[in-house]
Design a protein that fits this description.
3-stranded antiparallel sheet, 0% helix, Rieske Iron-sulfur Protein, mainly beta, 6-stranded antiparallel sheet, 9 strands
Length: 117
């Protein structure tokens, strides 16, 4: 029997393939996406391209938190991005796309971009 992915979600990798407080890069519908697993085990995804440098590097950033906000700091210029929303915490005018993520049977699946509210 072939298992179909939920509509609009792309299988990326096994959840255990993403070390805690680290990220991986994936190509989802032709777009570079950074997928992270926080210290608490939550899986989140944002665009991989650092808007300040133009490099596809956010998946290699430093994962941590600012208060109760899970963040990744870009390895280029160190701006921090909220992993839930993509909002840059150091420059409120900048945001990267955030994506819906689901873990089904141990497989990370990235869905469509989230609406900006």
């Amino acid at each position: 029997m072939i298992e179909l992915a939920p509509v609009g979600r792309t299988a990326v990798c096994a959840v255990h393939a993403i070390p805690l407080e680290r990220g991986v890069a994936a190509l989802v519908d032709g777009v570079a996406v950074a997928v992270f697993r926080t210290h608490a085990g939550e899986v989140l995804a944002i665009g991989d391209v650092d808007p300040f440098s133009g490099a596809s590097v956010l998946s290699r950033g430093i994962v941590g938190s600012r208060g109760d906000v899970p963040v990744v700091s870009s390895p280029m210029y160190k701006q921090a991005f909220d992993l839930r929303t993509g909002q840059c915490l150091d420059d409120p005018s900048v945001r990267v796309t955030s994506y819906d993520v689901a873990v089904d049977d141990g497989v990370v699946r990235v869905g469509p971009a989230r609406e900006v509210v």
